[in-house]
Write a structure and sequence with these properties.
It is built from 8 helices and 9 strands. With about 220 residues, the protein is an alpha/beta fold. The strands form 2 sheets. Strands 6-7-8-3-9 form a 5-stranded parallel beta sheet, sandwiched between helices. α7 links the parallel β7 and β8. α4 packs across α6 and α6 runs parallel beside α7. It is globular, with a radius of gyration of 17 Å.
């Protein structure tokens, strides 16, 4: 269970982007967070994934308050989340071939021995062929890079996925393929999902329930 209670967060002192927002995602549930660009939903998603410390409010994971964020959060809490951002090129190290991009979380958590097996397992799931895995970000399309970023988010087998406008910059066929990959993972593992976006039709088809941003504030 992920619970955000009265969250206020921002990036500059006394200038919050999110004010007094509450949201709950139950185990195995898929929740769509619908709102216009610039409303603060991406900031809330970063708070939910333990990537940004809120200025006020409480985040509970399985009923336990989270007290540390980013690299200071306990490993078992950090690795519970897999995150896919809107702009794959801003979230990918341009020096790394896609294989190493996907493997980053495994190596960072001392599980490098699992890399070959997980890459072989995940590449077909997200639609990456062997020839693409050796290429660097500038050598692949936005859609191919986002496929690698989704594989990176799944590589540690998270129990909570946060997809922040994951499909916003993709063509329809790639977007459909990535949504299907997320849903296959959720069905097989029981993972929960927080999907952030501004496409009402997509979120309503994808998620168990959709929450309108203005109903939270």
């Amino acid at each position: 269970m992920l619970e955000l209670r009265s969250i206020t967060a921002g990036y500059a002192r006394n200038a919050p982007v999110v004010r007094d927002v509450s949201l709950t995602v139950a185990p195995g549930e898929s929740v769509g967070l619908l709102g216009p660009s610039g409303c603060g939903k991406s900031t809330l998603a970063r708070v939910a994934a333990l990537l940004h410390r809120p200025d006020a409010g409480t985040l509970l994971l399985d009923g336990e308050p989270v007290r540390r964020w980013r690299h200071r959060a306990p490993r078992e809490k950090r690795t519970a989340f897999g995150v896919v951002f809107q702009q794959a090129r801003l979230s990918a190290d341009p020096r790394l071939p896609l294989t190493d991009l996907i493997a980053e979380p495994l190596r960072a958590t001392g599980r490098g021995a699992e890399v070959p097996g997980r890459i072989a397992e995940l590449a077909p799931v997200v639609g990456l062929t062997p020839d693409l895995l050796t290429r660097r970000p500038h050598e692949v399309s936005d859609g191919q890079l986002q496929r690698a970023c989704l594989a990176r988010a799944l590589v540690l087998r998270p129990r909570m996925l946060v997809c922040d406008e994951m499909t916003a910059m993709l063509d329809a066929s790639t977007a459909a393929a990535l949504v299907a990959a997320v849903e296959d993972y959720r069905v097989s593992t029981g993972a929960a999902l927080l999907a952030v976006g501004h496409d009402r039709t997509l979120l309503r088809r994808w998620c168990d329930r959709t929450v309108q941003w203005d109903s939270l504030t």
